[in-house]
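haha ok so turns out i had the wrong file open the whole time. this is the CORRECT one, sorry everyone. sequence first:
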Amino acid sequence: MTVANWCIAAACLLPMVVAMTSKVASVTSNDRYDNTDPRDWAGRQAGWMKRAIAAQHNGFEALPLFIAAVILAQQAHANQDRIDILAMSFVLIRVTYSIIYISNLATMRTVVWFAGIIVSLAILAQS
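then structure:
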């Protein structure tokens, strides 16, 4: 498996890890995570916990372009080292994005989001 393929796996797991932060933190709150009605629980959240859930959603939204770009670039036999570097950059950007989103830094979040899209498009351009 290539580094880029491992990055796809990491990018797929990252949104779930981000959402898990709010679920674990709820153990010490009055409104504990309710696995029998997770959407209702998520709808009641505020502050950083609400933003963590939103970051999870955005992480899932970013996946199709990234996954398609990696697969198409590899199928086109583009330079694998370049694909790997760009894929690692994407994962790092998404980790940074999630931290910034949870931290409520809206303008910075948008800049980092654009960086992620640009990296995905750069991978796609390799094909």
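The chain has one domain: 3-26+47-125.
again sry for the mixup
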